[in-house]
Protein backbone atom coordinates (compact mmCIF):
# COMPACT_ATOMS: atom_id res chain seq x y z
CA UNK A 1 0.00 0.00 0.00
CA UNK A 2 1.48 3.32 -1.09
CA UNK A 3 0.60 5.02 2.24
CA UNK A 4 3.10 2.68 3.92
CA UNK A 5 5.56 1.85 1.16
CA UNK A 6 6.34 5.28 -0.24
CA UNK A 7 7.86 8.36 1.36
CA UNK A 8 5.08 10.56 -0.07
CA UNK A 9 2.42 8.21 1.32
CA UNK A 10 3.93 8.34 4.79
CA UNK A 11 4.08 12.14 4.61
CA UNK A 12 0.39 12.22 3.63
CA UNK A 13 -0.50 10.11 6.69
CA UNK A 14 1.62 12.42 8.86
CA UNK A 15 -0.10 15.49 7.44
CA UNK A 16 -3.68 14.18 7.69
CA UNK A 17 -3.25 12.94 11.26
CA UNK A 18 -1.40 16.15 12.18
CA UNK A 19 -4.20 18.39 10.91
CA UNK A 20 -6.78 16.23 12.74
CA UNK A 21 -4.79 16.58 15.98
CA UNK A 22 -4.55 20.37 15.48
CA UNK A 23 -8.35 20.49 15.20
CA UNK A 24 -8.62 18.53 18.46
CA UNK A 25 -6.15 20.87 20.16
CA UNK A 26 -8.29 23.81 19.02
CA UNK A 27 -11.36 22.24 20.62
CA UNK A 28 -9.42 21.37 23.78
CA UNK A 29 -8.02 24.90 24.09
CA UNK A 30 -11.50 26.42 23.59
CA UNK A 31 -12.84 24.11 26.28
CA UNK A 32 -10.07 25.10 28.69
CA UNK A 33 -10.75 28.81 28.15
CA UNK A 34 -14.22 28.22 29.61
CA UNK A 35 -12.56 27.38 32.94
CA UNK A 36 -11.30 30.97 33.17
CA UNK A 37 -14.87 32.25 33.34
CA UNK A 38 -16.87 29.53 35.09
CA UNK A 39 -15.83 26.40 36.94
CA UNK A 40 -19.41 25.12 36.83
CA UNK A 41 -19.63 25.55 33.06
CA UNK A 42 -16.30 23.78 32.61
CA UNK A 43 -17.44 20.89 34.79
CA UNK A 44 -20.65 20.63 32.76
CA UNK A 45 -18.52 20.11 29.65
CA UNK A 46 -16.38 17.55 31.52
CA UNK A 47 -19.50 15.66 32.62
CA UNK A 48 -20.85 15.70 29.05
CA UNK A 49 -17.51 14.34 27.83
CA UNK A 50 -17.25 11.76 30.60
CA UNK A 51 -17.18 7.99 30.14
CA UNK A 52 -20.07 8.03 27.67
CA UNK A 53 -20.02 5.86 24.55
CA UNK A 54 -19.47 8.82 22.22
CA UNK A 55 -16.63 10.16 24.37
CA UNK A 56 -15.03 6.70 24.49
CA UNK A 57 -15.29 6.35 20.69
CA UNK A 58 -13.79 9.83 20.23
CA UNK A 59 -10.99 9.04 22.70
CA UNK A 60 -10.18 5.78 20.91
CA UNK A 61 -10.14 7.61 17.57
CA UNK A 62 -7.94 10.35 18.97
CA UNK A 63 -5.54 7.79 20.45
CA UNK A 64 -5.33 6.03 17.07
CA UNK A 65 -4.55 9.32 15.32
CA UNK A 66 -1.86 10.17 17.88
CA UNK A 67 -0.25 6.72 17.64
CA UNK A 68 -0.27 6.85 13.83
CA UNK A 69 1.25 10.34 13.86
CA UNK A 70 3.98 9.35 16.31
CA UNK A 71 4.83 6.05 14.58
CA UNK A 72 5.01 7.63 11.15
CA UNK A 73 7.05 10.54 12.53
CA UNK A 74 9.70 8.17 13.88
CA UNK A 75 9.50 6.10 10.71
CA UNK A 76 10.16 9.12 8.48
CA UNK A 77 12.92 10.38 10.78
CA UNK A 78 14.73 7.04 10.71
CA UNK A 79 14.25 6.86 6.95
CA UNK A 80 15.76 10.32 6.49
CA UNK A 81 18.70 9.51 8.79
CA UNK A 82 19.35 6.29 6.90
CA UNK A 83 19.24 8.11 3.56
CA UNK A 84 21.74 10.72 4.77
CA UNK A 85 24.09 8.10 6.20
CA UNK A 86 27.35 9.45 7.64
CA UNK A 87 26.78 12.83 5.97
CA UNK A 88 24.58 13.96 8.85
CA UNK A 89 27.63 14.00 11.14
CA UNK A 90 29.49 16.35 8.78
CA UNK A 91 26.94 19.15 9.12
CA UNK A 92 27.99 21.58 11.82
CA UNK A 93 25.83 24.58 10.89
CA UNK A 94 22.19 24.90 10.00
CA UNK A 95 21.72 25.11 6.22
CA UNK A 96 20.34 28.41 4.97
CA UNK A 97 16.56 28.36 4.65
CA UNK A 98 16.16 25.35 6.96
CA UNK A 99 14.23 26.09 10.15
CA UNK A 100 15.53 25.12 13.58
CA UNK A 101 12.26 23.27 14.26
CA UNK A 102 12.69 21.27 11.05
CA UNK A 103 16.09 20.01 12.19
CA UNK A 104 14.90 19.19 15.71
CA UNK A 105 11.46 17.68 15.13
CA UNK A 106 12.51 14.41 16.77
CA UNK A 107 13.61 16.14 19.99
CA UNK A 108 10.50 18.32 19.97
CA UNK A 109 8.37 15.23 19.38
CA UNK A 110 9.90 13.42 22.36
CA UNK A 111 9.23 16.42 24.62
CA UNK A 112 5.64 16.56 23.37
CA UNK A 113 5.12 12.83 24.01
CA UNK A 114 6.47 13.15 27.57
CA UNK A 115 4.22 16.17 28.14
CA UNK A 116 1.27 14.23 26.79
CA UNK A 117 1.94 11.38 29.22
CA UNK A 118 2.08 13.88 32.09
CA UNK A 119 -1.18 15.46 30.93
CA UNK A 120 -2.88 12.07 30.69
CA UNK A 121 -1.74 11.26 34.22
CA UNK A 122 -2.97 14.56 35.66
CA UNK A 123 -6.34 14.62 33.92
CA UNK A 124 -7.44 11.59 31.87
CA UNK A 125 -6.34 9.12 34.57
CA UNK A 126 -8.20 11.03 37.29
CA UNK A 127 -11.29 11.66 35.17
CA UNK A 128 -12.35 9.28 32.38
CA UNK A 129 -10.20 6.35 33.55
CA UNK A 130 -11.33 6.81 37.16
CA UNK A 131 -14.97 6.92 36.07
CA UNK A 132 -14.57 3.75 34.01
CA UNK A 133 -12.73 1.75 36.67
CA UNK A 134 -14.22 3.24 39.85
CA UNK A 135 -10.81 3.82 41.43
CA UNK A 136 -10.56 6.33 44.27
CA UNK A 137 -9.26 9.74 43.20
CA UNK A 138 -8.90 13.11 44.89
CA UNK A 139 -12.05 14.64 43.38
CA UNK A 140 -15.14 13.55 41.50
CA UNK A 141 -14.13 12.39 37.98
CA UNK A 142 -16.28 15.12 36.42
CA UNK A 143 -14.74 17.88 38.56
CA UNK A 144 -12.18 18.90 35.97
CA UNK A 145 -11.97 22.39 37.45
CA UNK A 146 -10.62 20.99 40.72
CA UNK A 147 -7.94 19.05 38.85
CA UNK A 148 -6.90 22.17 36.96
CA UNK A 149 -6.58 24.05 40.26
CA UNK A 150 -4.60 21.21 41.85
CA UNK A 151 -2.27 20.74 38.88
CA UNK A 152 -1.31 24.36 38.35
CA UNK A 153 -0.94 25.15 42.02
CA UNK A 154 2.25 23.06 41.76
CA UNK A 155 5.15 25.19 40.40
CA UNK A 156 6.92 22.12 38.98
CA UNK A 157 3.91 21.25 36.85
CA UNK A 158 3.62 24.86 35.72
CA UNK A 159 7.21 24.86 34.46
CA UNK A 160 6.82 21.47 32.79
CA UNK A 161 3.64 22.57 31.02
CA UNK A 162 5.32 25.77 29.81
CA UNK A 163 8.22 23.74 28.37
CA UNK A 164 5.68 21.42 26.76
CA UNK A 165 3.78 24.31 25.18
CA UNK A 166 6.97 25.90 23.83
CA UNK A 167 7.94 22.58 22.21
CA UNK A 168 4.39 22.25 20.87
CA UNK A 169 4.58 25.74 19.35
CA UNK A 170 7.79 24.96 17.48
CA UNK A 171 6.36 21.63 16.34
CA UNK A 172 3.11 23.18 15.10
CA UNK A 173 4.67 26.15 13.33
CA UNK A 174 6.75 23.80 11.20
CA UNK A 175 4.19 21.00 10.94
CA UNK A 176 1.33 23.25 9.79
CA UNK A 177 2.94 24.64 6.65
CA UNK A 178 4.75 21.35 6.03
CA UNK A 179 1.34 19.63 5.87
CA UNK A 180 0.10 22.23 3.38
CA UNK A 181 3.21 21.58 1.31
CA UNK A 182 2.52 17.84 1.34
CA UNK A 183 -1.04 18.50 0.15
CA UNK A 184 0.41 20.43 -2.78
CA UNK A 185 -0.79 23.86 -1.60
CA UNK A 186 2.64 25.42 -1.83
CA UNK A 187 2.67 27.73 -4.84
CA UNK A 188 4.91 30.78 -4.89
CA UNK A 189 2.19 33.00 -3.43
CA UNK A 190 0.73 30.57 -0.89
CA UNK A 191 4.03 29.20 0.41
CA UNK A 192 4.69 32.34 2.46
CA UNK A 193 1.02 32.76 3.30
CA UNK A 194 0.76 29.27 4.78
CA UNK A 195 3.85 29.90 6.87
CA UNK A 196 2.34 33.12 8.25
CA UNK A 197 -1.04 31.45 8.84
CA UNK A 198 0.67 28.52 10.55
CA UNK A 199 2.70 30.75 12.87
CA UNK A 200 -0.34 32.91 13.73
CA UNK A 201 -2.63 29.92 14.34
CA UNK A 202 -0.05 28.01 16.38
CA UNK A 203 0.72 31.11 18.46
CA UNK A 204 -2.95 31.75 19.28
CA UNK A 205 -3.49 28.07 20.05
CA UNK A 206 -0.53 27.77 22.42
CA UNK A 207 -1.26 31.15 24.00
CA UNK A 208 -4.76 29.91 24.81
CA UNK A 209 -3.31 26.96 26.71
CA UNK A 210 -0.61 29.12 28.31
CA UNK A 211 -3.11 31.69 29.61
CA UNK A 212 -4.97 28.92 31.45
CA UNK A 213 -1.73 27.59 32.97
CA UNK A 214 -0.54 31.02 34.12
CA UNK A 215 -3.99 32.13 35.32
CA UNK A 216 -4.40 29.15 37.64
CA UNK A 217 -0.74 29.31 38.68
CA UNK A 218 -1.26 32.93 39.75
CA UNK A 219 -4.52 31.97 41.43
CA UNK A 220 -2.68 29.27 43.37
CA UNK A 221 -0.01 31.74 44.49
CA UNK A 222 -2.67 34.22 45.62
CA UNK A 223 -4.35 31.43 47.57
CA UNK A 224 -1.11 30.73 49.40
CA UNK A 225 -0.67 34.36 50.44
UniProtKB/TrEMBL annotation:
<feature type="transmembrane region" description="Helical">
    <location>
        <begin position="145"/>
        <end position="170"/>
    </location>
</feature>
<protein>
    <submittedName>
        <fullName>Fumarate reductase</fullName>
    </submittedName>
</protein>
<dbReference type="InterPro" id="IPR034804">
    <property type="entry name" value="SQR/QFR_C/D"/>
</dbReference>
<feature type="transmembrane region" description="Helical">
    <location>
        <begin position="196"/>
        <end position="218"/>
    </location>
</feature>
<dbReference type="InterPro" id="IPR011138">
    <property type="entry name" value="Cytochrome_b-558"/>
</dbReference>
<keyword id="KW-1133">Transmembrane helix</keyword>
<dbReference type="GO" id="GO:0016020">
    <property type="term" value="C:membrane"/>
</dbReference>
<keyword id="KW-0812">Transmembrane</keyword>
<feature type="transmembrane region" description="Helical">
    <location>
        <begin position="12"/>
        <end position="33"/>
    </location>
</feature>
<keyword id="KW-0472">Membrane</keyword>
<feature type="transmembrane region" description="Helical">
    <location>
        <begin position="105"/>
        <end position="125"/>
    </location>
</feature>
<feature type="transmembrane region" description="Helical">
    <location>
        <begin position="53"/>
        <end position="75"/>
    </location>
</feature>
